[in-house]
Protein backbone atom coordinates (compact mmCIF):
# COMPACT_ATOMS: atom_id res chain seq x y z
CA UNK A 1 0.00 0.00 0.00
CA UNK A 2 1.12 3.55 -0.69
CA UNK A 3 -0.17 6.65 1.09
CA UNK A 4 -2.57 8.83 -0.87
CA UNK A 5 -0.59 12.01 -0.19
CA UNK A 6 2.60 10.35 -1.44
CA UNK A 7 0.84 9.09 -4.55
CA UNK A 8 -0.64 12.53 -5.25
CA UNK A 9 2.79 14.15 -5.00
CA UNK A 10 4.27 11.60 -7.43
CA UNK A 11 1.40 12.07 -9.89
CA UNK A 12 1.90 15.83 -9.99
CA UNK A 13 5.70 15.69 -10.19
CA UNK A 14 5.66 13.15 -13.00
CA UNK A 15 3.10 15.08 -15.01
CA UNK A 16 5.16 18.24 -14.70
CA UNK A 17 8.23 16.38 -15.92
CA UNK A 18 6.54 14.85 -18.94
CA UNK A 19 4.89 18.08 -20.12
CA UNK A 20 8.05 20.15 -19.61
CA UNK A 21 10.30 17.96 -21.76
CA UNK A 22 12.05 19.82 -24.52
CA UNK A 23 11.13 19.35 -28.16
CA UNK A 24 12.57 16.17 -29.59
CA UNK A 25 12.86 14.40 -32.91
CA UNK A 26 9.46 13.22 -34.04
CA UNK A 27 9.43 9.45 -34.10
CA UNK A 28 8.24 7.98 -37.38
CA UNK A 29 6.01 5.53 -35.56
CA UNK A 30 3.99 8.32 -33.91
CA UNK A 31 1.53 8.65 -36.78
CA UNK A 32 0.86 4.90 -36.69
CA UNK A 33 -0.57 5.03 -33.16
CA UNK A 34 -4.40 4.98 -33.26
CA UNK A 35 -6.09 7.58 -31.06
CA UNK A 36 -9.72 6.55 -31.33
CA UNK A 37 -9.88 2.91 -30.18
CA UNK A 38 -11.04 1.60 -26.80
CA UNK A 39 -7.94 -0.59 -26.80
CA UNK A 40 -4.69 -0.87 -24.93
CA UNK A 41 -1.94 0.34 -27.26
CA UNK A 42 1.23 -1.41 -26.10
CA UNK A 43 4.51 0.31 -27.01
CA UNK A 44 7.50 -1.91 -26.25
CA UNK A 45 11.22 -1.63 -26.83
CA UNK A 46 14.61 -1.81 -25.16
CA UNK A 47 15.36 0.51 -22.26
CA UNK A 48 16.31 4.08 -23.20
CA UNK A 49 15.07 3.70 -26.75
CA UNK A 50 12.82 6.72 -26.28
CA UNK A 51 9.48 5.27 -25.16
CA UNK A 52 8.86 8.06 -22.66
CA UNK A 53 9.72 10.66 -25.29
CA UNK A 54 7.29 9.02 -27.69
CA UNK A 55 4.60 9.25 -25.02
CA UNK A 56 5.41 12.94 -24.57
CA UNK A 57 4.92 13.45 -28.31
CA UNK A 58 1.72 11.45 -28.15
CA UNK A 59 0.15 13.48 -25.36
CA UNK A 60 0.41 16.67 -27.46
CA UNK A 61 -2.13 15.07 -29.82
CA UNK A 62 -4.63 14.34 -27.03
CA UNK A 63 -7.23 16.78 -25.66
CA UNK A 64 -6.60 15.54 -22.10
CA UNK A 65 -4.79 12.65 -20.43
CA UNK A 66 -3.66 10.91 -17.26
CA UNK A 67 0.05 10.10 -17.05
CA UNK A 68 1.94 7.86 -14.64
CA UNK A 69 5.38 6.25 -14.71
CA UNK A 70 5.59 3.08 -12.65
CA UNK A 71 9.38 2.91 -12.81
CA UNK A 72 9.77 5.25 -9.86
CA UNK A 73 11.72 4.13 -6.79
CA UNK A 74 9.05 5.65 -4.53
CA UNK A 75 6.50 3.12 -5.82
CA UNK A 76 8.15 0.06 -4.32
CA UNK A 77 5.08 -0.52 -2.12
CA UNK A 78 2.51 0.07 -4.88
CA UNK A 79 -0.06 -2.73 -4.88
CA UNK A 80 -2.89 -3.64 -7.30
CA UNK A 81 -5.40 -2.15 -4.86
CA UNK A 82 -3.65 1.22 -5.24
CA UNK A 83 -4.82 1.53 -8.85
CA UNK A 84 -8.22 2.73 -7.69
CA UNK A 85 -6.55 5.28 -5.42
CA UNK A 86 -4.38 6.42 -8.33
CA UNK A 87 -7.44 6.78 -10.53
CA UNK A 88 -9.19 8.94 -7.96
CA UNK A 89 -6.18 11.22 -7.53
CA UNK A 90 -5.76 11.79 -11.27
CA UNK A 91 -9.47 12.63 -11.61
CA UNK A 92 -9.28 15.05 -8.67
CA UNK A 93 -6.17 16.76 -9.99
CA UNK A 94 -6.88 16.85 -13.73
CA UNK A 95 -10.56 16.27 -14.26
CA UNK A 96 -12.17 13.53 -16.33
CA UNK A 97 -10.18 11.92 -19.15
CA UNK A 98 -10.58 8.85 -21.35
CA UNK A 99 -6.85 8.64 -22.14
CA UNK A 100 -4.42 6.87 -19.81
CA UNK A 101 -0.67 6.99 -20.51
CA UNK A 102 1.22 4.48 -18.35
CA UNK A 103 5.00 4.06 -18.50
CA UNK A 104 6.71 0.72 -17.63
CA UNK A 105 3.54 -0.74 -16.15
CA UNK A 106 4.81 -4.33 -16.16
CA UNK A 107 6.56 -3.55 -12.86
CA UNK A 108 3.19 -3.84 -11.08
CA UNK A 109 1.71 -7.29 -10.64
CA UNK A 110 -1.93 -7.51 -11.69
CA UNK A 111 -1.91 -4.32 -13.75
CA UNK A 112 -3.88 -5.94 -16.55
CA UNK A 113 -6.94 -6.41 -14.31
CA UNK A 114 -7.24 -2.67 -13.78
CA UNK A 115 -6.64 -1.91 -17.46
CA UNK A 116 -9.29 -4.39 -18.56
CA UNK A 117 -11.88 -2.93 -16.19
CA UNK A 118 -11.23 0.58 -17.45
CA UNK A 119 -11.34 -0.53 -21.09
CA UNK A 120 -14.78 -1.95 -20.37
CA UNK A 121 -15.75 1.54 -19.22
CA UNK A 122 -14.76 3.12 -22.55
CA UNK A 123 -11.24 4.27 -21.65
CA UNK A 124 -8.16 4.05 -23.87
CA UNK A 125 -4.66 3.15 -22.72
CA UNK A 126 -1.20 3.84 -24.09
CA UNK A 127 1.24 1.60 -22.24
CA UNK A 128 5.00 1.18 -22.50
CA UNK A 129 7.14 -1.72 -21.40
CA UNK A 130 10.64 -3.08 -21.91
CA UNK A 131 9.79 -6.77 -21.71
CA UNK A 132 7.75 -8.21 -24.56
CA UNK A 133 7.09 -11.57 -22.93
CA UNK A 134 5.74 -10.23 -19.64
CA UNK A 135 3.43 -7.88 -21.47
CA UNK A 136 2.19 -10.45 -23.97
CA UNK A 137 1.60 -13.14 -21.36
CA UNK A 138 -0.48 -10.83 -19.17
CA UNK A 139 -2.30 -9.36 -22.15
CA UNK A 140 -3.09 -12.81 -23.48
CA UNK A 141 -4.96 -13.78 -20.32
CA UNK A 142 -6.88 -10.57 -19.68
CA UNK A 143 -6.91 -8.42 -22.81
CA UNK A 144 -7.34 -10.92 -25.64
CA UNK A 145 -8.45 -9.00 -28.70
CA UNK A 146 -8.32 -5.70 -26.81
CA UNK A 147 -4.73 -4.63 -27.42
CA UNK A 148 -2.45 -3.56 -30.28
CA UNK A 149 1.32 -4.06 -30.10
CA UNK A 150 3.72 -1.43 -31.44
CA UNK A 151 7.50 -1.86 -31.24
CA UNK A 152 9.83 1.11 -30.91
CA UNK A 153 13.37 0.75 -32.26
CA UNK A 154 16.43 3.01 -32.03
CA UNK A 155 16.51 5.93 -34.46
CA UNK A 156 16.19 5.06 -38.13
CA UNK A 157 18.68 6.79 -40.43
CA UNK A 158 16.03 9.40 -41.26
CA UNK A 159 15.38 10.09 -37.57
CA UNK A 160 19.13 10.19 -36.92
CA UNK A 161 19.58 12.82 -39.64
CA UNK A 162 16.77 14.87 -38.11
CA UNK A 163 18.35 14.55 -34.65
CA UNK A 164 21.67 15.96 -35.87
CA UNK A 165 20.13 18.21 -38.54
CA UNK A 166 22.34 16.69 -41.22
CA UNK A 167 21.88 15.75 -44.87
CA UNK A 168 21.78 12.22 -46.22
CA UNK A 169 25.25 11.29 -47.51
CA UNK A 170 27.90 8.61 -47.18
CA UNK A 171 29.76 10.46 -44.44
CA UNK A 172 26.68 10.95 -42.29
CA UNK A 173 25.67 7.34 -42.88
CA UNK A 174 29.08 6.19 -41.63
CA UNK A 175 28.49 8.02 -38.35
CA UNK A 176 25.07 6.37 -38.02
CA UNK A 177 26.55 3.01 -39.00
CA UNK A 178 29.17 3.20 -36.23
CA UNK A 179 27.22 4.91 -33.45
CA UNK A 180 23.74 3.43 -33.84
CA UNK A 181 20.51 5.15 -32.92
CA UNK A 182 20.02 5.13 -29.15
CA UNK A 183 19.15 8.76 -28.31
CA UNK A 184 20.91 9.20 -24.96
CA UNK A 185 24.20 7.86 -26.32
CA UNK A 186 23.96 10.08 -29.40
CA UNK A 187 23.33 13.10 -27.19
CA UNK A 188 26.27 12.62 -24.81
CA UNK A 189 28.65 10.29 -26.71
CA UNK A 190 29.81 8.42 -23.61
CA UNK A 191 30.50 4.70 -24.08
CA UNK A 192 29.59 4.13 -20.43
CA UNK A 193 25.94 4.93 -21.28
CA UNK A 194 25.63 1.87 -23.50
CA UNK A 195 27.73 -0.26 -21.17
CA UNK A 196 25.40 0.60 -18.29
CA UNK A 197 22.39 0.00 -20.53
CA UNK A 198 23.56 -3.55 -21.16
CA UNK A 199 23.92 -4.16 -17.43
CA UNK A 200 20.48 -2.67 -16.75
CA UNK A 201 18.87 -4.98 -19.28
CA UNK A 202 20.68 -8.03 -17.95
CA UNK A 203 20.24 -7.40 -14.24
CA UNK A 204 16.96 -5.46 -14.01
CA UNK A 205 15.01 -6.98 -16.91
CA UNK A 206 16.35 -10.53 -16.75
CA UNK A 207 18.17 -11.52 -13.55
CA UNK A 208 15.70 -9.85 -11.17
CA UNK A 209 12.57 -10.89 -13.05
CA UNK A 210 13.56 -14.49 -13.70
CA UNK A 211 15.40 -15.13 -10.40
CA UNK A 212 18.61 -16.14 -12.16
CA UNK A 213 21.24 -17.29 -9.70
CA UNK A 214 24.24 -17.40 -12.03
CA UNK A 215 24.18 -13.82 -13.30
CA UNK A 216 27.82 -14.00 -14.32
CA UNK A 217 27.18 -16.73 -16.90
CA UNK A 218 24.29 -14.71 -18.33
CA UNK A 219 26.53 -11.67 -18.72
CA UNK A 220 29.32 -13.74 -20.30
CA UNK A 221 26.87 -15.26 -22.78
CA UNK A 222 25.48 -11.83 -23.67
CA UNK A 223 28.96 -10.42 -24.30
CA UNK A 224 29.86 -13.46 -26.40
CA UNK A 225 26.76 -13.12 -28.55
CA UNK A 226 27.23 -9.36 -28.98
CA UNK A 227 30.74 -10.13 -30.22
CA UNK A 228 29.33 -12.63 -32.72
CA UNK A 229 26.48 -10.69 -34.34
CA UNK A 230 25.59 -11.92 -37.82
CA UNK A 231 27.16 -15.31 -37.07
CA UNK A 232 25.49 -18.70 -36.80
CA UNK A 233 25.25 -20.49 -33.47
CA UNK A 234 23.71 -23.60 -31.94
CA UNK A 235 22.46 -24.07 -28.40
CA UNK A 236 24.52 -27.24 -28.02
CA UNK A 237 27.70 -25.36 -28.89
CA UNK A 238 26.86 -22.67 -26.34
CA UNK A 239 26.13 -25.34 -23.72
CA UNK A 240 29.60 -26.82 -24.18
CA UNK A 241 31.36 -23.47 -24.49
CA UNK A 242 29.97 -22.12 -21.22
CA UNK A 243 29.69 -25.43 -19.37
CA UNK A 244 25.96 -25.09 -18.86
CA UNK A 245 24.35 -28.07 -17.16
CA UNK A 246 21.62 -28.28 -19.77
CA UNK A 247 20.92 -26.96 -23.25
CA UNK A 248 17.79 -25.44 -21.76
CA UNK A 249 19.92 -22.82 -20.00
CA UNK A 250 21.20 -21.04 -23.16
CA UNK A 251 17.74 -21.47 -24.72
CA UNK A 252 16.16 -19.68 -21.75
CA UNK A 253 18.85 -17.00 -21.49
CA UNK A 254 18.60 -16.07 -25.17
CA UNK A 255 14.81 -16.08 -24.97
CA UNK A 256 15.01 -13.59 -22.08
CA UNK A 257 17.41 -11.40 -24.06
CA UNK A 258 15.03 -11.44 -27.03
CA UNK A 259 12.10 -10.51 -24.76
CA UNK A 260 14.13 -7.53 -23.54
CA UNK A 261 14.95 -6.43 -27.12
CA UNK A 262 18.68 -6.87 -26.62
CA UNK A 263 19.25 -9.65 -29.14
CA UNK A 264 17.29 -11.38 -31.91
CA UNK A 265 17.62 -14.82 -33.47
CA UNK A 266 16.95 -15.65 -37.12
CA UNK A 267 16.17 -19.17 -38.25
CA UNK A 268 17.39 -20.91 -41.37
CA UNK A 269 14.47 -21.17 -43.78
CA UNK A 270 12.99 -24.60 -44.26
CA UNK A 271 9.54 -25.70 -45.34
CA UNK A 272 9.72 -28.25 -42.53
CA UNK A 273 9.04 -26.47 -39.24
CA UNK A 274 10.72 -29.30 -37.33
CA UNK A 275 13.95 -28.89 -39.31
CA UNK A 276 13.67 -25.12 -39.04
CA UNK A 277 13.52 -25.37 -35.25
CA UNK A 278 16.67 -27.50 -34.89
CA UNK A 279 18.83 -25.81 -37.53
CA UNK A 280 21.54 -23.38 -36.50
CA UNK A 281 20.34 -19.82 -35.98
CA UNK A 282 21.96 -16.46 -36.57
CA UNK A 283 22.23 -13.77 -33.91
CA UNK A 284 21.65 -10.02 -34.29
CA UNK A 285 21.65 -7.10 -31.84
CA UNK A 286 19.31 -4.16 -31.39
CA UNK A 287 21.88 -1.45 -32.13
CA UNK A 288 25.35 -1.16 -33.65
CA UNK A 289 26.50 1.40 -31.09
CA UNK A 290 25.49 -0.93 -28.26
CA UNK A 291 27.49 -3.74 -29.87
CA UNK A 292 30.65 -1.71 -30.47
CA UNK A 293 30.63 -0.20 -26.96
CA UNK A 294 30.43 -3.65 -25.39
CA UNK A 295 32.68 -5.68 -27.67
CA UNK A 296 36.40 -5.49 -28.36
CA UNK A 297 36.35 -7.78 -31.38
CA UNK A 298 34.04 -6.11 -33.88
CA UNK A 299 35.54 -2.71 -34.71
CA UNK A 300 37.12 -4.13 -37.86
CA UNK A 301 34.24 -6.48 -38.75
CA UNK A 302 32.42 -3.96 -40.92
CA UNK A 303 30.68 -6.58 -43.05
CA UNK A 304 29.03 -8.19 -40.02
CA UNK A 305 28.06 -4.82 -38.58
CA UNK A 306 26.53 -3.82 -41.92
CA UNK A 307 24.52 -7.04 -41.92
CA UNK A 308 23.34 -6.32 -38.37
CA UNK A 309 22.11 -2.89 -39.42
CA UNK A 310 20.23 -4.36 -42.37
CA UNK A 311 18.52 -6.85 -40.07
CA UNK A 312 17.34 -4.15 -37.64
CA UNK A 313 16.06 -2.10 -40.56
CA UNK A 314 14.11 -5.07 -41.92
CA UNK A 315 12.83 -6.00 -38.48
CA UNK A 316 11.16 -2.60 -38.11
CA UNK A 317 8.69 -3.66 -40.78
CA UNK A 318 8.80 -7.45 -41.09
CA UNK A 319 8.60 -10.16 -38.46
CA UNK A 320 9.14 -13.22 -40.63
CA UNK A 321 12.82 -12.97 -41.56
CA UNK A 322 15.05 -15.97 -42.28
CA UNK A 323 18.41 -16.79 -43.77
CA UNK A 324 18.81 -19.23 -46.65
CA UNK A 325 21.48 -21.91 -46.95
CA UNK A 326 21.81 -24.36 -49.80
CA UNK A 327 25.09 -24.82 -51.63
CA UNK A 328 25.66 -21.16 -50.89
CA UNK A 329 24.14 -18.79 -48.34
CA UNK A 330 21.85 -15.77 -48.67
CA UNK A 331 21.70 -13.46 -45.68
CA UNK A 332 18.01 -12.57 -45.62
CA UNK A 333 14.78 -13.90 -47.05
CA UNK A 334 11.68 -11.95 -46.05
CA UNK A 335 8.22 -13.45 -45.81
CA UNK A 336 5.10 -11.30 -46.06
CA UNK A 337 1.57 -12.71 -46.09
CA UNK A 338 3.01 -16.24 -45.97
CA UNK A 339 5.03 -15.71 -49.13
CA UNK A 340 8.74 -15.02 -49.63
CA UNK A 341 8.88 -11.76 -51.57
CA UNK A 342 12.39 -10.46 -50.97
CA UNK A 343 15.93 -11.89 -50.88
CA UNK A 344 18.87 -9.77 -49.77
CA UNK A 345 22.60 -10.34 -49.66
CA UNK A 346 24.78 -8.02 -47.58
CA UNK A 347 28.40 -7.44 -48.54
CA UNK A 348 30.54 -4.56 -47.33
CA UNK A 349 32.38 -4.49 -50.66
CA UNK A 350 32.07 -6.65 -53.75
CA UNK A 351 35.49 -7.67 -55.02
CA UNK A 352 36.84 -10.10 -57.58
CA UNK A 353 37.55 -12.49 -54.71
CA UNK A 354 34.04 -12.58 -53.22
CA UNK A 355 31.74 -11.59 -56.10
CA UNK A 356 31.00 -15.13 -57.30
CA UNK A 357 30.22 -16.38 -53.78
CA UNK A 358 27.92 -13.48 -52.92
CA UNK A 359 26.07 -13.47 -56.25
CA UNK A 360 25.72 -17.26 -56.39
CA UNK A 361 24.19 -17.32 -52.89
CA UNK A 362 21.67 -14.66 -53.87
CA UNK A 363 20.79 -16.27 -57.21
CA UNK A 364 20.39 -19.70 -55.60
CA UNK A 365 17.87 -18.20 -53.16
CA UNK A 366 16.09 -16.38 -56.00
CA UNK A 367 15.77 -19.63 -57.92
CA UNK A 368 14.62 -21.57 -54.86
CA UNK A 369 11.84 -19.06 -54.15
CA UNK A 370 11.08 -18.40 -57.83
CA UNK A 371 11.94 -14.69 -57.66
CA UNK A 372 13.15 -12.66 -60.62
CA UNK A 373 14.87 -9.90 -58.64
CA UNK A 374 17.41 -9.89 -55.82
CA UNK A 375 19.23 -7.19 -53.90
CA UNK A 376 22.84 -6.89 -52.79
CA UNK A 377 23.44 -4.15 -50.21
CA UNK A 378 26.94 -2.72 -49.92
CA UNK A 379 28.66 0.10 -48.11
CA UNK A 380 28.98 2.32 -51.20
CA UNK A 381 28.79 0.35 -54.45
CA UNK A 382 26.06 0.62 -57.04
CA UNK A 383 25.55 -1.68 -60.01
CA UNK A 384 23.05 -3.92 -61.76
CA UNK A 385 23.36 -7.02 -63.88
CA UNK A 386 21.65 -10.23 -64.93
CA UNK A 387 22.76 -13.72 -63.94
CA UNK A 388 20.95 -16.66 -65.60
CA UNK A 389 18.09 -14.27 -66.44
CA UNK A 390 17.87 -13.12 -62.81
CA UNK A 391 18.11 -9.37 -62.15
CA UNK A 392 20.60 -8.40 -59.44
CA UNK A 393 20.43 -4.88 -58.05
CA UNK A 394 23.53 -3.67 -56.17
CA UNK A 395 22.81 -0.69 -53.97
CA UNK A 396 24.59 1.29 -51.20
CA UNK A 397 22.81 0.77 -47.93
CA UNK A 398 22.68 4.49 -47.19
CA UNK A 399 20.57 4.98 -50.31
CA UNK A 400 18.44 1.91 -49.56
CA UNK A 401 17.73 3.25 -46.07
Automatic annotation (TrEMBL):
Residues 39-160 form the AAA domain. SUPFAM superfamilies: P-loop containing nucleoside triphosphate hydrolases. Residues 204-348 form the DUF4143 domain. InterPro entries: AAA_14, DUF4143, P-loop_NTPase. Pfam families: AAA_14 (PF13173), DUF4143 (PF13635). It comes from the Archaea. This is Predicted ATPase (AAA+ superfamily). It comes from Cuniculiplasma divulgatum.
Amino acid sequence: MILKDTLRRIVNEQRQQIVSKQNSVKREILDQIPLDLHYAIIISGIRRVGKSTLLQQLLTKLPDFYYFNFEDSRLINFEPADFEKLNQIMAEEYGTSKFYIFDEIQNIKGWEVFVRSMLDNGKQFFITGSNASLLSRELGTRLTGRHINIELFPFSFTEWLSFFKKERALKTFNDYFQNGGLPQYLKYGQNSILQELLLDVLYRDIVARHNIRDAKSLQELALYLLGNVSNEFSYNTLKKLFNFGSVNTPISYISYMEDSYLLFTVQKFDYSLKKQAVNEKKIYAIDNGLVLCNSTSLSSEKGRMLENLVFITLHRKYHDIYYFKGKRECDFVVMENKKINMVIQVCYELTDDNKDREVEGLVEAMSFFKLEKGLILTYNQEDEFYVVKKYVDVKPIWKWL
